[in-house]
Amino acid sequence: MDRAKNHFITNSIRIKNEEIFLKKDTILSLDSKIDFSQFLKDSYKKLALNYPKYHKMDSLCKLGILGSTVLLRGQDFKANTALVLSNASSSHDVDIKHMQSMESIVSPAVFVYTLPNIVLGEISIKYKLQSENVFFIEDKFNADLLVDYSETILNSGKALSVVCGWIELKNDQYDVLLCLVSNNGEIPFTKENLEELYRFENE
Amino acid sequence: MSDLRTELKQSIIEQLNLEELTIEDIDNDDSLFGDGLGLDSIDALELIVLLEKDYGIKLTDPNQGKEIFISINKMAEYIESHRTK
Q1: Alpha-carbon distance A177 to A16, whole Å?
Q2: What is the reported pLDDT for A202?
């Protein structure tokens, strides 16, 4: 635990139930009656993402781009910023879509997203990151793993900051927590603090 | 503007999720790749699928796409002379 004392949760974003929170403050709250794809479209417009490639992505990558864009806006980070992400359902939704498309002519644009780690690539492309990255599949949110792996990267000197968190998507139900971890901030990067951020809006 | 060219623009916008473009934004001679619409290699594969699904044209050599997917006009000319449906 001592190793974590010099690193802080510099910024955090939570996306759940048609709402987006930045450091627990609501920055976007949409009608709970809209469907998931409309939520992704409306969020893009209202948060001025201005990244047309977003529309070509699968929903998991859209959540990753939406979350990372808001998380990193105005933040000081380098190209070696590492990505340590996780979820429980891998690329479930786009896998189903791909399986259904196999009844006729398969869509290459759907197929290319049938791995969860593609979201790492999309975020890296958008921010020109050249860094360590990893995507874990876990039964549930695992703060221990995220803190341990992120700390290992930070302490190795390979990265000055890490974006870590959870991007879960299954049957259009989404649950996202992303944190920017660096030497700057007030909230120590600990398992307890990460869990507390995850529990926010989850209870 | 011919119906086929308009139809192609609409299909490309829908199939390639070019949500921020309208038919009016695409000129018949605009480059589809590079500095034009900025399509990428995955889009090229989607265009091959589009030719097969909508016009019954099966490209066996993906390199053919380089000559066909230059612009809406070039695509329309190819479709008019090769379509099977």
Answers
A1: 9
A2: 61
Residue B51, domain extent: 3-82
Question: pLDDT band for position A203 (50/70/90)?
Answer: low
CATH number of B77's domain:
1.10.1200.10
Contact B49 A56 (CB under 8 A): no
What is the ipTM metric for this complex? 0.78
Distance CA B32, CA B5 (A): 13
Phi-psi region of A48 (alpha: psi -120 to 50; beta: other; left: phi over 0): left
**Chain A residues 89-128 with a CB less than 8 Å from chain B:** 104-109, 112
- In chain A, the domains with their CATH numbers are 2-199 (3.40.47.10)
* Count of domains forming chain B: 1
Q: What are phi and psi of A12, to 5 degrees?
A: -150, 150
The two three-digit tokens of residue B25, written as one number: 């934004």
